[in-house]
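To illustrate the input format used throughout this study, we show a single complete record. The first block contains the structure-token representation of the backbone; no residue identities are included at this stage. The design step must infer an amino acid for every position from geometry alone.
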């Protein structure tokens, strides 16, 4: 296992693309548990061999918009109990599926009289842990956003959109049939009802309540009967600035006075988990080299997925010089895959037709 340190602290999760695109049906509370867990896995002193994780109620109850935080343990316990006997399925190749249990062991520890000290202990299957730690593609996100989405399909779509937000300028296509399978929609459900549940309702909830917004377009095909049916969905996702309700990043300047990050600096701090000074250096270098906002955040996202010791130095080098890497999807080196001089966008130079085929074949 090539261990990759997760960035951002326990309130930033990394959800691997394999889990995002796996086939399972979890309610919103169960996805909450995964978000909290994925904020812990790979963080701090976590080792490759470790598969046991504790969710301490006192550490996570503030993440919920609960009217009575004293009920946080019962709220989370009910969600975890629903995992008992459940798992997810991955398609390894044609004719081969792999089923993994979500957790190999669950331990509930309630401290009567002091609920903030209660905890739930979760053991991961070793291969699931390895899957998370060795993943090269996936979504980084602040767990506060999906945690307070109320519809389960809003959460599933949010993870998919976050995974693709820096790909090809945020534009990608997924077959409608694959979306149905990914979200475990029964075949008997009519497409019109499915569209409302997995597209229309998430559209209303994700836009305006998270750090991204999206538009979608239905792609139709003509059936032998002459009728038109939904064959795929084209998504366009972009990052948006949020009006934050928490205390902004604050530091003490050389003059002993506090400095508050600007909105632009705060956006870099949130996305990259860096200091105010580092955010200033990154923005200054980006502007000096005429990098656009989209290019900058593409580079930040790309760097978070790399196993580098000095992530800020890595970003500054790319901002100054551009970069030349193998294309993420094909794994083949290509001189035109990354433009060192202009860095228009890494993904816009990929073969989109090949990418679309890969998505539709998953």
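Output of the design step:
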């Amino acid at each position: 296992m090539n261990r990759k340190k997760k960035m951002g602290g326990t309130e930033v999760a990394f959800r691997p693309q394999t889990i995002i695109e796996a086939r399972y049906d979890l309610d919103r509370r169960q996805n909450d548990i995964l978000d909290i867990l994925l904020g812990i896995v790979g963080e701090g002193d976590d080792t490759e061999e470790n598969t046991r994780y504790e969710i301490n109620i006192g550490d996570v109850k503030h993440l919920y918009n609960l009217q009575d935080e004293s009920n946080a343990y019962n709220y989370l316990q009910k969600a975890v109990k629903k995992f008992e006997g459940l798992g997810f399925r991955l398609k390894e190749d044609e004719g081969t599926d792999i089923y993994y249990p979500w957790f190999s062991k669950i331990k509930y520890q309630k401290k009567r009289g002091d609920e903030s000290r209660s905890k739930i202990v979760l053991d991961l299957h070793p291969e699931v842990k390895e899957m998370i730690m060795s993943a090269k593609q996936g979504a980084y996100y602040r767990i506060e956003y999906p945690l307070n989405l109320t519809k389960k399909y809003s959460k599933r779509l949010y993870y998919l959109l976050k995974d693709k937000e820096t790909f090809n300028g945020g534009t990608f296509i997924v077959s409608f049939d694959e979306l149905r399978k990914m979200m475990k929609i029964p075949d008997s459900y009519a497409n019109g009802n499915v569209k409302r549940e997995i597209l229309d309702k998430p559209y209303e909830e994700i836009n305006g309540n998270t750090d991204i917004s999206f538009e979608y377009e239905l792609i139709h095909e003509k059936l032998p009967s002459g009728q038109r049916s939904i064959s795929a969905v084209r998504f366009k996702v972009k990052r948006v600035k949020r009006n934050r309700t928490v205390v902004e990043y604050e530091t003490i300047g050389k003059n002993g006075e506090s400095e508050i990050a600007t909105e632009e600096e705060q956006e870099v701090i949130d996305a990259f988990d860096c200091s105010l000074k580092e955010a200033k250096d990154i923005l200054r270098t980006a502007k000096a080299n005429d990098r656009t906002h989209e290019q900058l955040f593409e580079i930040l996202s790309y760097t978070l997925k790399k196993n580098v010791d000095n992530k800020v130095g890595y970003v500054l080098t790319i901002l100054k010089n551009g970069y030349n890497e193998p294309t993420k999807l094909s794994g083949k080196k290509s001189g035109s895959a990354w433009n060192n001089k202009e860095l228009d966008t890494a993904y816009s130079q990929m073969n989109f037709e090949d990418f679309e085929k890969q998505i539709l074949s998953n």
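Structural context for interpreting the output: The radius of gyration is 21 Å. Confidence is low (pLDDT under 50) at residues 243-258, 325-362.
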